[in-house]
Amino acid sequence: MPSADILSDLVSLTERALEETVEQVGYQLALRYGVQIRNYLESPCLLDTHIAQLAEPLTTHLQEDITRGTISQPWLYTMLYLLVDVRQLSALTCYFPHNVIHLEPCIHLLAQWYGWDAEKLSITSLDKNNPGADLSEIATPSFNDVYDEKDVSSNAKQHVVYVLFASLSILVGVPFDIHLVDSKGDLPDTVVALAKRAFENMGKEYIIAAEMLARFVTRPDLRDTLLPSILQEFNLKLKEYSSEIAQKKDLVVPVIRRGKFTAINQTPAYLITLSYIVRFSERDHIKTLGDSVLESPEQILSALLKDDSREIRRLCIVLSTRLASMYLPTQLFKWREQLLNTDAGELLLYHDKLLELEGFYVPTSFDYFIDSLLVGISDDDTGIRLSSARGLALVVGRLPFLFADEVIVEILSYFSPAETPEMWHGANMALGELIRHGYLPPSRIPEVFDVTKKSLQFERKKGAWSIVKDSACFISWALARSYASSVQLRDLCSELASELLVVACFDREINIRRSAAAAFQELAGRVGDPYVPSAVLSSALVDYFSLGARKISYMEIAPRIAALDKYYAEKFVDAICNRYLTHWDETTRNYAARSLPSLIQALGEAEGKWNCALKTLGFLVDCLKGTSCEDDWVSYCGFILGIASSLTLLADAEDSYTPEINNLILQLSNSQSELFTKGKRFKDNADANNNIISATALLIKAFANTNPRITADTILRKHTYSVYLLYLLSVLEHSITTTIDSMSIAMFDTSNTNDVILALRALADYYTLCMQAPSSAYLLSNEFLKGCLEDTDFRSPLAYLTGLGLLPSSFRREETNYILHAILTELNKGVSPSGYVMRLYILSTVESTLLALDSVTDEQRQSFLKIINVCLHDYSSNQRGDVGSLVRLKSFRILRNVLRENGHVTAFLSDAYINAIVELLGSRIDIMRIDALISFYEDSKDGIISIADINLSHLEWYMQDYTAEKNLVFQMKEQARQDRQQREEIDTNNYLYDLHKRESRDDDPLDDDATINLLTLVPKLAYTAFNVLVVLFIPLEEYTLKAAAALCYSFGAMSETTSTYLIGFLSEIFDKSRKNNLLTGSTSNRTRISDDLKSKIISLGSVVKIAVYDTISRTVQQCNLADAYSINVTDASIRLLNFLLVNHVAIESDAKLFDLLGSLITLSKSTSKFPMLQVVTACLAGAGVVAKQNGYIKTYERAIKGLILFLGHKISKLRDAACDGLLEIMLITSPPDSPELKQVVETLTSYDWSILTTPEINCARSALCDVLGIVPPPEKK
């Protein structure tokens, strides 16, 4: 809503613009004025409080310019144009000049500025550079180069013309004979010529010019002389254009661009002028003109309504409406009077209807006008359809009953399945407008209801089908508004209400759901009970906001409405089964199936839940039998989904229903036997294939979730169970690969469990439940299950290994060695990046096997440990990125889960779990560090793992933020749960929908099922992992090397913020002069740090330094240049070494540092990776400086020799780097006045090492070695 400050600013800008004389500043003010006044486009009436202050100064200036006959301060015309554009001319008419003395000056001023005298005109303020040019050809004034960004100055000339035309359109209405004010005798011709000039340009001013011309020629003193010639000329132009269209040659297309040689279509100007002429003419006079207003309407209108220009078609509709209304009486016919005052079904007797026709006459052309309006309601453009609908309502309301009824019948005939959605929409809008104005005879309400019902059920996969439903809701709203007391409507009210509620709850489009709800609320409010069942309560449930979420509409609102009345429940179930389960949209089908059980349950409160469920299931099974999955796979999937969801209601069925349920399962199995046999049906239709597989898997899962006491005899027959199992195994690989390919790596952990896997798990759990029964009649041998696996034609081991973990727990427990042998056989083939999916599902099989075990042998322990270790150290990567991180993270989470769930059997995995924690605490991926940190904290606190030398209070110190946030979220969830419980209690008593719940979403952190993103709640947890790794693990002798290796690895490629933190963190470790802000952990709930933790932090530097140097030495020595992970770790270690040497952190051993440099030089001879060699060169330079400072003679000499070796490297940048390193060592470690230093510097700087040839390099290195007094290296060949 615009504020009062904007109005004040507009007034202030107007005052400043009046006083301004500088052209550029004036248009700057106009620019600001336009920006401010556009705030009122949606509610222009708010300007009325200050309209006098805004308009009077501008119109006064306009009047002065008209009086003087010159244009001054043209930016004021732009401001007046903007004001008229926003508030409309009708609200400002009283402020414009309207004195007769201004008429002729205004015409002459417009003629000078815009007409044929423009060549003689030179206005300095607007055209300083072209005083003698034709201003009609000047696109913009000279200041356009600076001020054209807001379309102000670029259209300045048009704004002036528009304002002058607007003023003239008011002045031509002065009540004096035009000849009395015409001093030259050519005033009429001048006005007509000005309007035609505007038509030639077809700019912004042509509409106001047409209005001005129409007002002028319809004056009493000109209508008999000037008007006929204008009509004749315009009709001739329209006939010519229509002929061109009919002959399909030289079509003139309307254009916006202006130019001297551009053909501009003037047809819209002619049509709008004719329309204005009809509007402004006196009724008696226009009737005398008759067909001369539009000659040959059958030719002109039929051609123009096919034109490509939307504006031409729209103006044809407007003109047809006005011409049709011209011949109709203003007095209401008897049937309209009775319709307004009675609720009778039959308004008039047939004799009375005939009497209405006496004295009623319309010309033949009237039929063409009605036909044009009927054609317009099928136009492709929505605006034209709406204009046609309003025009028909206006005409029908003034026709005799028989003629009006004939038009209504014609509109009703347009609702054919063969017609386009645009035709349905236009016909609906026409009926809606007729009903809204009360022009529909009550006897036609049943027919209108039939077409409305069809429109509410209108569905097509392509096209603008939603507009049909929207217009049907408009009809329903109009019926409730205008015919609330009609007997015919009340008889149909309950059915109409149920149809609206079905659309409001289940439609795919949010706008349609809300439109249907608004129509229902209107119907419920105006008609009410008992014609609309539970009107008030239902209206409260279909709330505007709650319908915004489709999930809430299906799963919460619809069941609650169904519970209010049995009639609604029946309609909802019928709509779901017949329309929405077979909907083309997959999401709609899924929601429909999920909502069906709750709707059946609501219906079953009256008839019995199980009876209703069996009845619905029987209907769906019959539908499924009659549907071919090849011909209509959408319906086939929908019926299967509906059956699967409805079967959940039979989970607690009584034993008396056993025959019916088993018979139902057998029917379904038999009807799908062919599908089960073939597995996949649609190789050429991926969408159909995926949906069929998913739906069938859900059906099998529903079978498995039934009560084993009732269905075990049917499902566990070997043939039936094997059919289900073989089908799921046959499609398992396809479902896995489809799932993996359609999601990102980050989503794998939450999205990899697809419907087929869930169905296999449910089938296995079903068998386990049956085995717990006293009878062993359901026993299936392990050989039988192995046979099912072997009988399945797997294309790769992926599905086979995954299927092993999805068989019953008894099989996994008894055939552990068989499963481990199959997994190890596959892993022994090698770890490749392309096999990461295989390893992920192997881990799932390992997890399910470990959870099923009661005991484990030593051999099995070794096998499990081998599999886990392989996966924990999977660092493979491909074009998708670090895919090995998925395997590592899943391995870690499996270790944690099996230790928690089956710890007495899997205790042998504790050491592997702790080692994995240490390794992941130094991961380069934030979420992995956080996962490891939280798992370590929670499991240590719960006693799942125990490390004797780690003080739990130290760990709790670093986890203060996490604990605080966790407690806060827990309190919020508890409070939210209590609030919702209280609201639900109130809601239960009052039967009103909980409007607060409408705002909840799937990711609501207060929802019980929501996953709390601790990375968002505690962003510093990713950094806290480094604290725990360094402070708690590196000092422990058992984990020192592993923790140091993890720290070295983390120094590789990371995010900029993490790298900055890690550098500052390490600096605090080795520099005791710095404050330990990062080492102690920055917490928001700071308490005093314990003394023992503080002392541990203070003494940390030497321990970490020794561990890190040992790790770096071992990593460089063991580097395998054929392994990408080994190269990655080595690169990170060398970078960490360079950081330590730059910061003068050196190990206190000349021999160890000497050996480390030797390993680096050896490594540099074996690799050609420039980034790594560049860091090695920097390390040699840093080691030379550190060695000189600490007196490490051997290390110093090796650093010098290593750099001299790099001076002969084939990469020129490395030679430059080696030269810089030598200079750094000499300048830092030697006395400034040392002769040796001067000779070395002179020698190094006398050569351009980057461009030396091989002999020159050998010579230069020999000269340098002579100066340094060392043996030169072998000559480079």
UniProtKB/TrEMBL annotation:
**Domain of life here?**
Eukaryota
One GO biological process term is:
microtubule cytoskeleton organization
Start and end residues of each Tubulin-folding cofactor D ARM repeats domain? 358-528
Q: Which GO terms describe its molecular function?
A: beta-tubulin binding; GTPase activator activity
InterPro entries from the UniProt entry? ARM-like (IPR011989), ARM-type_fold (IPR016024), ARM_TBCD_2nd (IPR058033), TBCD (IPR033162)
State the Pfam families in the record. ARM_TBCD (PF23579), ARM_TBCD_2nd (PF25767)
The protein in question is named: Tubulin specific chaperone D
The species is Giardia intestinalis (strain ATCC 50581 / GS clone H7)
